[in-house]
User: Fold this.
Amino acid sequence: MGKNHVYTTVEEDEKLTEVKFREIYNPPPTPAPGTVRTPEEIEADIRRQEAALERLFLITIQLPDTVLWIEPPIVCCWNTDKNYWTTDDIHDLKYNEDKFTVNFRTGQLRPIAFATSKYSNLPYQGWELKPNDDQLVFEPCFKPADTGVIVTIMGAIIVCEFEVLEVGIKLKSLQNGATKALQDMVDETFTLNELTGRLQAGGVDFFPSEDAPNLIEGSCLKHWTMESHLYHCMAHLCTAYNFTWSRWNVTADRRTIVQQMREYLQQHSESFEILHVTPLQAILVTATEVSAEYSTQPIEGLQFYPDLYSLIKGHGNAEVLEVVSSVPWRLVENVKDLLCAIKPCSYS
Assistant:
């Protein structure tokens, strides 16, 4: 037998025993205004705080690479007594942006989760809907079924580009992310439900719910019946027109939507015009995006049209009407559903 070995006789089976541990940490109070402390007192307080923190658990977690972390995550722990997630008892939180790790201290080991702002990309900085330039053919034989439609959403940080097709919605690009998370979705085609689920699970949410206006500053919520009907009209015109945001929309009232539009059939497209939509009518106005002030004066010779689609039917040229009349219905529905999910007119 080696002299460095120790042998112990165990008479009973040993079992792991749960020992409840809880260390309560109270952050030092903020000194009252005007309080003067000596350097020695400040150093003593720092030492006491460091000693109290040393008694807590130090936890380091590598953030999952399947989520696009737009901002530092919020660490939460589960309150077993009241059954909810809380940030209580999370101290000395540190986020390493280079290594994507989170360090923190806690006085009790409990289930831990990460939270982030659901709508950190809203309100949108801009948006655009247009035919796909890569596939658009400027020939008399061109048919809408030959091309898709590009929808670009410029969030506060992330820029998403979708290509809407008859068979579904393709994620064309996802820009400005700090990691390669969600890049495996690029050039894949999804249904709308699959697309929203994958993006939301990855930390990118461009699909505001009904309570979103209560959570997003700077939104301009519009009359939903008017807004959804406008999206349906835009979907019918998506292969012939280019639509984009207008700076006048955010200051317009709830029953008014303002955006820019132009024909997009010729290689040299027309300049943008301002479209003014209310629940009662749709008009093209004399104001421009660079006007000193907004005017609802309609362009000369424009008649009354109750919505955007009837405006184009009565005001558009023959070439546009021919293209619009042959848009595949599945493409129309897919474009309409995506716009209704994103709600660009209410959040830009």
Remarks:
- The longest strand covers residues 90-96.
- The two ends are 80 Å apart (CA to CA).
- The chain has two domains: 42-115, 126-342.
